[in-house]
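Here is my example:
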Amino acid sequence: MALRPGQEQNAEKGTAALADRTRHALDVLERISDAVFSFDRFWRFTYVNTRAERLLKRSRSELIGRNVWEEFPQALGSVFEQEYRRALASQANVSFEAFFRPLEAWVDVRAYPSAGGLIVFCRDISARKHAEQALHESEQFLRATLDSLSTHIAILDGRGTILAVNAAWKRFARENGCEEDSANCGVGANYLGVTDAAKGDFSEEAPSVATGIRDIIAGRAASFLQEYPCHEPGGQRRWFLVRVTRFAGQCPLRVVVAHEDITGRREAGEALLRLEREEAAREEAEAARERMDAVLERIADGFAAFDRDGRFTYVNRHAETHFGRGREAMLGQRPADVLSESQGAAIEHLLRRATGAGAPVEEDQPSARVDRWLRVVAYPAPEGHTVYFRDVTEQRRAELWSRFLSEVSAASTYSLDWEDVSRAVVKLTVPTLADGCAIATPGGPHGEEPTTEVAAVTPELEEALRAMFRPGSTSALGRTVEQALRTESVVRLPGPSQDSPRVDSAVAVPLMTQARPLGVLVLVSTRPGLRYETQDLSLVRELARRAALVLENARLYRTARQAVTTRDETLGIVSHDLRAPLNTISLLCTGAERRLSHGDSGPAVGEALRKVRAVVGDMDRLIDDLLEVARVESGQPKLDLEPLDVPTLLAQVQGLNELLAAERSLRLEVSLAPDLPRVRADRARVLRVFQNLVGNAIKFTPPGGRILLKAEHCEGRVCFCVEDTGPGIDAQEQVHVFDRFWQAIHAHKAGAGLGLAIVKGVVEAHGGRAWVESQQGQGAAFFFTLPALTQAPEVAQAPR
């Protein structure tokens, strides 16, 4: 049929719209989470989406146009074939869940027939099926467990309706004439209603049971217990214990009611009660004795009874421990016959004292247990004596520690010398609290020398204690000390070790003050009875705290003495350095005044005034140095920071000092590493650092020598060096060269000794470090570092 131009255009638009809808539908099928595939009427694959490829483990290129029963022959005869054919034959939608063994997966299938074939939507539900299987098995296991119990169990909902019962409940109901589907006792029955309606014999407890269940349902109680009697059709009386428990969580409220038959236990209890009453009636005295024995066995004290002849008639288990003998060996015997000579004599003497006094007497005696002490109290009575024993070892030890700690504190009043205090502490400790004691302190920043004070009961133990502080010690004691210092905590050596056979127990504790360690205290025991247990650690810490306090007082006293000495030396130096120029000024002024009085105002007067001005300048520099040292040592120097170019800086230093070096016939040279970054520093103070270093180099380098200024880049810093060919600095003096006034006091050289102290303070204020390297006779090199200024990368501009 011929189409008109308008009709052709409409047909083309319809075809394009159909193509768009088809693409949209295919895109939707690719995006959904279900696996989708379709067959034609000859069971050939016509479409497979991406999910279907993963589920079927085949690509669509392998399946399109292929017969499903040929590709998956295992599906022949399965529910998949049956349902697919039924859907296509009846043109009805089908859905089912099945396990497809070739894919080892459970799938949820929905098949939709069409005129052209069949479209199938599948979803992998293996995880859900496995969870359902696990839940089913868990429920079966729980059911089997409940059914295996002899207790009658019912599960109620929040309204008191029975949801489930176990086999024992059903069996009991049948035995009492109640069928499983009865509205009174089976599933679906209102248990609260049945309980409320209970009447007649053996129903007195029913209201309290109903109230208990309601309290649990309402959340007013978590559980409920009630014993109650119950009758059987034959008239036999039985006793039950009902336990009601509430379970609440994400699931609905459930209440578990369990009835346990306690008839046998109840009857046994009643029989036992009757027997006890009969025994009490027949043997009241013996029963009272047994009760007394039970009380005496349970008390924490030892107890023993003696007859008039001093023989044991009763010994409880704690007394057995204290005497170190079994009661069978002691009953009927005198203490002197069965105990050690000293212990037996002490007990018999105490009994005689109590008899003579006619009143209780007490004394402390050593126990048969090693290093244990007893407080023994003897009570006289007409039939003999009763004796109580109480272990007072810890009390005596606490008293001993308290007395010892007081003595340690008092030791600080006798001397403030560091070594004397350490020696006093270790001597007080041995043998009162330890068989060996050691205190080791490292050298300190204020001139303290390393010290090790040791006291021990034997020379061998003293040598072992000294050995643990030697460098590289690998003994158990050495490792204990190292761990205590490293962790800054108490470390115990709880028992003997192979490399320390003489040591049975030890404890190391750091001596801490102001959160820094002063040293370490070590206590050592060689006796099994004297062990440092956990309960002793608080006392050991207190000892260490007091020892640290005493040592810190000694250190502060030494520091104060050194400060006074330094102050006196400083005043002497400053007064000397100021008096000399003042004397010079006085002499110059006197001479100028004499000349002027004679009318002489010639060149000599002008020269005198020039010299006065120079001397005043020297005094001003000295005062400025003192103020600068005070500023840098206060930690708050004001820095005017700016980026400094290193080559320009060294060129300026060279220019300032070239003439001075030339006057001394010295070469002043500069050596620069390539690509040096700039530094961020205070120009005036850095120049002063260089002037102090270069000035010292010019002062101490003999004529003909060389002074070299160097700079190089090192790990984010610029390292500067002033190196000379002078006499060098002795190794022992190098550690002091940056101390203020040290040069003036110890080196006996020109100057007040402030220049290098200023160098160190200024460099450290910039975040740098200053040090010296030198060998005697080979010159000296003074180094200092300044933080390098990170160069910001230039931003490239796009061409216009």
Summary: DSSP finds 26 helices and 27 strands in the chain. The first strand starts at residue 35 and ends at 40. Residues 537-597 form the longest helix (61 residues). The chain has five domains: 22-129, 149-267, 284-391, 396-553, 627-787.
